[in-house]
Every structure is written in structure tokens, then in C-alpha cells.
Write a structure and sequence with these properties.
Nucleotidyltransferase, domain 5, Hypothetical protein af1432, 3 domains, single chain, 19 helices, exopolyphosphatase, alpha/beta, ATPase_NBD
Length: about 500
């Protein structure tokens, strides 16, 4: 089966990027190549808004280089888009003609609304958020949107970016106290011109390189143990701490900060102040990074052509299905184990055993899709592989804590391994939460044992309480000896969590 590759070139004011995507079996796009060039085209925009000859040469040289890289792939589609600097250039017609002549690219100049829209589209198609404010600060413009119920409500493009703010407010590479204060006052005034930004009390979602660097710095300062940036959440105090930390550093040390790209060292402070000021104006409930941005939004639009909507119906379901496909999991087994888990969970809940809540079922159900997924790599160490893969792989639709909880449930084998996996994150959970997760993992593990041969032999179960004993009747078709052996062997984990003995009776249905 031939592979389908897609490419996009993003001509920004600060950086230019070529990204190559591979379309997965499940239909989603996976980034496999990302080539960046710090062109800083904004610096080549003259006072009359004409892009200088040197700027055009830089643009063409970079695009030619990108073209050579892209030619090593058999592309289904190539898209080239440009944002603020080219949009604001008075000689944009000349620029697009030269790009076409030298590279053959039909460079599409995005309007302010399109640039904001694609950022919004990327966020709602790759996160669980149904309401929020997006902010994408480039070199020469800053796009903000407000969406509710996943629908775009408002959008705006401010004519300032990290580069222009640095040039307009800082006399030297690094700002003084007064310059930072003046910048903050200016930004708050600008954001307050839009009533729909004020006091929203919803998540603020950062898009682009500045937001990405900010999160990387925060994670490094905290020695954050989970991998991945997408859907990482910061609080107001985190933004303030990182901003103040960066402000104290001389340029040489700033360029060596872990997580900060050297080429962004001189513009990270204006970018951080944009996020912090907007956070305060909107009285945000948290700052969340979306690694998916304008480029992804463009392709989400392409992928959903003919669907009647550009929104994926359920982001998390799409991601889970992607995992099921990637790791060749049995849908038939998943559905059967879900049925047995559902029966056991709700009978325990109805009898008031285990302190289960109805919402706990959603976590069990989610984990049932990917339980023991690491067996795909190595059956002997499948629990370790399952935990590592799920805890450290970006799963669109799951925040970091939700992803960790999923990994703990889906990798459950025994108490010892559970505690080992949990150890680096122990402080993230209350004692009762840890106990609950262990019990849910044990419940799911037990139900998988009831289908150990993948024949769906155990069709149903019934639970009865007799003092400190749980009598479980399992209704079967065909020979159930392998399932009985595994269930008797593994029930001890659930018994310890429930503090009850479990007596199993296998009977013919």
C-alpha cells in the first residue's frame, strides 16, 4: 500500500517552515518532517510597507531549499501560505509572481480572518475544549478568537507581533523595568478594546512558537516527568514566574535557557507578556498550549471537505480509534471486555461496593479500548510498554493528567507495578484517588482475564453479596477452563482492593 504524503509551507513574519505529513491508516495526519528557517521577513519590511529586495531574496532562497526537501517525497498535495508580513507588504503582487516564477508555488496570502480561523480550527479539532480564547502571536501580528460550543464566535487580528513589539518598546535587546511596564500597559489597553475578551473566565489557548517555548521552559524548570507539550496547562502564577525568571537573565544566559530556542531569545519576553496580559484581561481559568496551529488548521479544512462541517465529531474518539488501528487491537475483544466490565462495574456500584461513582465508568471504558496495548511490542513486558506509550504519547482530546490516569488503568498488572509507575507522580494524587485508580485497573484486568482466549466464552456475569464474600456467577458457552484458570489466578488483585473474597462459579448459559 503506497503512503500518502502532504506538505505545507508556512511563510511567517519571524520563521518559515516546511512540514511534511503522512496520512495514517485511521485517516489522521502525522508530522514526519519539520524544517525551520529563521528568515525574519518582518525586518525587511520598509517604512512604506514594501518588502525589500533582500527580503524577497531571503524568501526565494528559503522556498527553493524547502522545495528540494519536499521533492524527496511523493506528495499528494502541497500548500504554501503566507501571513502578516506578506499580507501587509505593498508589493505583495510582485512577491507572489516571483515566488511562482522561481519555485512554481502558488503562494496563498491568508487574510486576518483566515489566519485566526485556522488557529481556532486546529484547537477544536485537537483538544477537548468546547469554549475558550485562542491567541497566536507571530512576528508581525497577533490573532485572537473566542469560541463556544466548539463554534467560532469572534475573531480579531492585532497589527503587532513579538518582533514588532520588541522593536517598538525595547531600545536594546533586553528591556528595562519601565519598558516592560509600558509594554504591559499598551497590551492591556489593546485587549480591552475588544469587549468579548474581557472577564471571560475560560481557558486561554496559546498557539505558535512563543507559546511552545514558554511551556518548554516551564516544564524544564519544574523537571516535569511527562513527555509532550500539547494540552499542557499552566496557571497565572506559572506565567508570572517564568516571565520574571527570564527578565532577570542577561542575553548570554537567556540564549542558553533549556526549552528556549536561541533564535527566540530576544523576542520571548514580548511574547510572554502578550500571554500574561491577555490572561489577566480575560481572567482566564488556565493557559493551555496547543501544538496544533495554523498549518494543522489548513489541513483539517482539507481533510473534512465534503463532510458538511470542518469539525471532527469527537476528538477523543478519533484519537482512541487511531491507537486501536496503530496497535492492531481486536475490536471484537474490546467490545466484549467492555460489556463484562460494564456489568461488573454497575453491579458493584448498585450494591455500594468500592465507593464507585457513575463517572468512574467513563475512565474504565476509555481504558478498555487500549488495555495491554504494549503487548504489540513485547508480551513479556507489555505492562511497562503500555504505560510508557500512553503516558508519553500525545492523545488529542486528553489533558496531561487524564492521559496519565488512562496509562495507569490500561497498564494495570499488579500492585507492585502500579506503585512503580505511579511513583514519579505520587504527589499529583490524593491517597483515595490512588486507591480508586488501582481498583479500577484491577477490575479491568480481571474482565480481560474472562476473555483470555478471545473466544467470548464468558457471556455474562451476576454478582451476589454474602457478608464479606462476593459470589460471582459467570455464564458461559463452550469450554471455559482457560478463562477459569486466569480468573482464579488474577481475582486476588480485585479482592485486595475491595477487601472482600470473590467466589467464582462458572456455569453453562
Amino acid at each position: 500500500m503506497s503512503k500518502s504524503y502532504y506538505a505545507i509551507i508556512d511563510v511567517g513574519s519571524n520563521t518559515m517552515r516546511l512540514v511534511i505529513y503522512l496520512r495514517e491508516k485511521g485517516g489522521r495526519l502525522r508530522e514526519i518532517e519539520n524544517v525551520k528557517a529563521v528568515a525574519r521577513l518582518r525586518n525587511h519590511l520598509k517604512k512604506d510597507n514594501r518588502l525589500s529586495d533582500e527580503g524577497i531574496r531571503t524568501l526565494l532562497t528559503t522556498l527553493t531549499s524547502f522545495k528540494e526537501v519536499a521533492q524527496s517525497y511523493q506528495l499528494e498535495e502541497m500548500v504554501c501560505v503566507a501571513t502578516a508580513t506578506i499580507r501587509q507588504a505593498s508589493n505583495q503582487e510582485e512577491i507572489t509572481e516571483k515566488v511562482s516564477e522561481h519555485t512554481g508555488f502558488d503562494m496563498r496570502i491568508l487574510s486576518e480572518h483566515e489566519e485566526a480561523y485556522y488557529g481556532y480550527l486546529a484547537v477544536v479539532n485537537s483538544t477537548p475544549l468546547t469554549e475558550g480564547i485562542t491567541v497566536d502571536i507571530g512576528g508581525g501580528s497577533t490573532e485572537v478568537t473566542y469560541f463556544k460550543d466548539r463554534e467560532l464566535v469572534e475573531s480579531h487580528s492585532f497589527p503587532f507581533g513579538a518582533l514588532t513589539l520588541q522593536q517598538d518598546f525595547f531600545k536594546k535587546e533586553l528591556p528595562t523595568d519601565d519598558e516592560m511596564s509600558n509594554l504591559r500597559q499598551y497590551l492591556i489597553e489593546q485587549f480591552n478594546t475588544l469587549p468579548w475578551l474581557q472577564k471571560r473566565k475560560v481557558p486561554l489557548i496559546g498557539i505558535g512558537g512563543g507559546a511552545r517555548n514558554l511551556v518548554q521552559i516551564d516544564q524544564n524548570l519544574k523537571e516535569y516527568p511527562l513527555a509532550g507539550l500539547h494540552q499542557y496547562k499552566m496557571k497565572d502564577s506559572d506565567l508570572s514566574f517564568v516571565k520574571n525568571y527570564l527578565f532577570t537573565l542577561p542575553m548570554k544566559k537567556l540564549q542558553k535557557v533549556e526549552g528556549l530556542s536561541k533564535d527566540r531569545a530576544d523576542i520571548i519576553l514580548p511574547a510572554t507578556e502578550v500571554f500574561h496580559s491577555l490572561y489577566d484581561v480575560s481572567q482566564s481559568s488556565g493557559f493551555i498550549l496547543s501544538r496544533k496551529g495554523l498549518r494543522d488548521g489548513v489541513f483539517y479544512e482539507q481533510l473534512t471537505r465534503g463532510m458538511g462541517t470542518h469539525l471532527f465529531p469527537n476528538v477523543l474518539e478519533e484519537s482512541i480509534q487511531e491507537l486501536v488501528t496503530d496497535y492492531d487491537l481486536s475490536v471484537k475483544q474490546i467490545n466484549h471486555v467492555q460489556h463484562l466490565s460494564n456489568e461488573l462495574f454497575h453491579q458493584l456500584h448498585e450494591k455500594g461496593i468500592g465507593g464507585l461513582r457513575k463517572k468512574d465508568w467513563q475512565e474504565v471504558k476509555r481504558a478498555s479500548y487500549v488495555f495491554n496495548l504494549g503487548d504489540y511490542i513485547d508480551s513479556e513486558a507489555s505492562s511497562q510498554h503500555t504505560f510508557y506509550l500512553l503516558a508519553n504519547r500525545t492523545i488529542d482530546g486528553l489533558m496531561h493528567m487524564e492521559r496519565l490516569r488512562l496509562a495507569l488503568l490500561a497498564s494495570f498488572k499488579n500492585k507492585t507495578l502500579f506503585k512503580q509507575f505511579l511513583h514519579p507522580y505520587k504527589k499529583w494524587f490524593l491517597k483515595d484517588e490512588r486507591k480508586k485508580l488501582r481498583m479500577l485497573g484491577a477490575l479491568l484486568k480481571f474482565c480481560y482475564c474472562l476473555d483470555s482466549t478471545r473466544r467470548q466464552t464468558v457471556e455474562d456475569l451476576e454478582l451476589a453479596v454474602d457478608g464479606d464474600d462476593l459470589n460471582m456467577t459467570l455464564y458461559c458457552k463452550g469450554e471455559w477452563m482457560p478463562e477459569e484458570y486466569q480468573a482464579e489466578k488474577q481475582k486476588k488483585h480485585l479482592e485486595k482492593c475491595l477487601k472482600k473474597s470473590i467466589n467464582l462459579s462458572f456455569v453453562e448459559k
